Amino acid sequence: xxxxxxxxxxxxxxxxxxxxxxxxxxxxxxxxxxxxxxxxxxxxxxxxxxxxxxxxxxxxxxxxxxxxxxxxxxxxxxxxxxxxxxxxxxxxxxxxxxxxxxxxxxxxxxxxxxxxxxxxxxxxxxxxxxxxxxxxxxxxxxxxxxxxxxxxxxxxxxxxxxxxxxxxxxxxxxxxxxxxxxxxxxxxxxxxxxxxxxxxxxxxxxxxxxxxxx
Length: 214
Fold this sequence. Notes:
- By secondary structure, the protein is α/β, with parallel strands linked by helices.
- The protein folds into 2 domains: 4-80, no CATH class; 91-213, Rossmann fold (3-Layer(aba) Sandwich), CATH 3.40.50.
- The chain has 12 helices and 4 strands, in the order H-H-H-H-H-H-E-H-H-E-H-H-E-H-E-H.
- Strands 2-1-3-4 form a 4-stranded parallel sheet.
- Helix 10 crosses helix 11 (189-196).
């Protein structure tokens, strides 16, 4: 992988970056952080900027230089305040592979993909979700770059009050019409229910319930 020194400022990483979309300040972006490091900044100098990242992983896929931007930010944040490595391979992320899932989703559903594992295994998962979306007609939290729009719920930035989750979810739902929300990550249920006013069901619970009544 390339390093921050290889960043030439193309700004493609900003296109799907939640912290930049909220701040509209290039300092709060992978590009801004990489440029700060190129000019001699250390972790303490950019502590506020790196603490705003919600670890969605979209920037890694958009970077033409293949810089591991997520790892760069995580390393800087750990220097400021040690933190455990995020568990991006939790059990809930594999429920999307259930063969019966197509029977449970409808065109009135908004399917919230868990962003970090989706971006980590992007090539395989994008193809799978494309098939699922076309077969069921459900909406998904994908942006125009086909990156998953992360909710940010439960992220370190959310817990520290550095990221406005409410604003993020309102933006995610803007212009969408749906009757039910399906989430992969159980942590998303409560707040999405509060902000959408719609039933919110965890994917694993949906599959379990349908199989029980089958």
